[in-house]
Write a structure and sequence with these properties.
- The protein is an all-alpha fold and 138 residues long.
- It has one domain: Up-down Bundle (Four Helix Bundle (Hemerythrin (Met), subunit A)).
- It contains 4 helices and no strands.
- The chain has helices spanning 15-36, 43-69, 75-96, 102-137.
- Helix 1 packs antiparallel against helix 2 (43-69), helix 2 runs antiparallel to helix 3 (75-96) and helix 3 (75-96) packs antiparallel against helix 4.
- The longest helix is centred in the C-terminal third of the chain and has 36 residues, at 102-137.
- It is elongated.
Length: 138
Amino acid sequence: MTDLLVPTELLTGIAEMDGQHDHLFNSMLQVKNALLSVSDVDEAGLTLLAQLLEELLEHFAWEQEAARANGIPFEHHAREHARIAAFVRGKIPELRNGRCNVPALMVYMERSFESHVAHFDLGLGTALRAAAQARRTG
């Protein structure tokens, strides 16, 4: 990976997860650019936001499966994923109806994603690396 958008302090050391995070940061940037480039929310921006939601859901499923496959507790992390998905899902109709502050939404989403990675995914990365090390030495 070159020209990562994900801040280096948020790299988990799990290549697949870091690649997904970088892709999600890129997708958020595309949504932000699309939504902020027009005075009214257009369908292109809404489509990109809906695609971002699907990408988030795929990423969340990958993390959950990786945790399950390695015996890593994931209930609290899964609840956070559900909260994030519900938030993004709820913003689509708000945007469509013109009841959403787009700049504030995009700042919030970027900061929330960074916070989620820092508070949940870095720990998951550590646990996944430890599980891989245990398999190699065990």
